[in-house]
Amino acid sequence: MDLDRALDLIKKSRAKIVGVQIPEGLKRMATAVAKEIEVKTDAEVIVSGDPCYGACDVDLDLCRAADLVIHIGHSEMLEGDQLHDKVVYVEARMRADVKEAVENAADLLSTRRVGVVTTVQHVHRMEEIVEVLETRGIEAVVRSGGDRTRYPGQVLGCNYEAARNMDVEEYLFVGTGQFHPLGVALATKKRVVAADPVTGNVSVVDALPMLKRRYGAIARAGDAERIAVLVSKKPGQKRMDLAKKMAALGEEHGKKMVLVYLDRVEPDVLVNLGVDAAVCTACPRIALDDQTKYPVPILTPPEFEVLMGERKGDYFLDEVE
Ligand code: SF4
Question: Is 269 within the bounds of a domain?
Answer without folding.
Answer: yes
